[in-house]
Amino acid sequence: MTVRAPAVAGRFYPGDEATLRAAVDEYLAGAVTTDGAPPKAIVAPHAGYMYSGAVAASAYAALAECRAVVRRVVLLGPAHRVALDGIAAPTVDAFRTPLGDVVVDTDARDAIGDLAGVVVDDRPHTGEHSVEVHLPFLQHVLTEFRVLPLVVGRASSDQVAAVLERLWGGPETLIVVSSDLSHYESNDVAHEHDRRTAAAILAGDGSALDGHDACGVYPLRGLLVAARRRHLEPRLLDLRTSGDIAGSTDRVVGYGAFTFTPASTS
């Protein structure tokens, strides 16, 4: 079995199993719980846990009711380290974290192989943190699952939405989009910026978003297209900056946690 080794363990999150498990436990224990149907999709940040872990936990805590139901996770994160046109799936059989190995869903990878923009290439995954940092949360909140990690570069909303539609499935499939929000503005400016971004997400308006609003804008836009087609209702759970949580307030990064659930029929 080929395994993608962790690239940012010990830097973005604790590198040993016991400390990592305790950290994720603590973040989830402090998260605000939500009522309602389990989400079909979530959006959560991907910075170092000391900055964004509490915000990410707000999204992951919403999965409590589907802990034993979800068996496949389609996890999309932006490309930070390799220039990429399209959507890259890995060749490896598993992704490793200090909590163990997560098996890659090779059937799902094969199912999207004919779609426009999709490539199978390990290079965008090698040092990429935007996917990796979500795996310990998923390992903690779900019982048994496979993952299809996708690094998304310059891809159209329709290309991303086509991947999601192909893999949509039922309640056994969860979609996770990894994105931070504003970058390197003052805390006050970032708060206002992120409120506008959150409003666009809640309105399902991907055309109002660009890379200055969210580093994961390409997968996020695709999710918004698919969510509109599938009548999912977005909900904002948490919206904070690194300046609210730790460190300087001069140059901060914004973080948001969102869920997307089937529209109520009542």
Q: Provide a count of the helices.
A: 9
How would you name the CATH homologous superfamily?
A: LigB-like
Class by helix and strand content? alpha/beta
CATH topology: Protocatechuate 4,5-dioxygenase, Chain B
Question: How many structurally independent domains?
Answer: 1
Radius of gyration: 17 Å
Kindly provide the name of the CATH class: Alpha Beta
Strand content: 15-25%
Question: Low-confidence stretches at least 5 residues in length (pLDDT < 50)?
Answer: none
Architecture, according to CATH? 3-Layer(aba) Sandwich
Oligomer: single chain
Shape: globular
Major sheet summary line = 9 strands, mixed
The helicity comes to 25-40%
Average pLDDT over all residues:
96
Distance between the termini: 48 Å
What is the string of SSEs from the N terminus onward? EHEHEEEEHEHHEHEEHHEHE
For the secondary structure, the number of strands is 12
What key attributes describe this structure?
single chain; 266 residues; alpha/beta; 9-stranded mixed sheet; 3-stranded mixed sheet; 9 helices; 12 strands
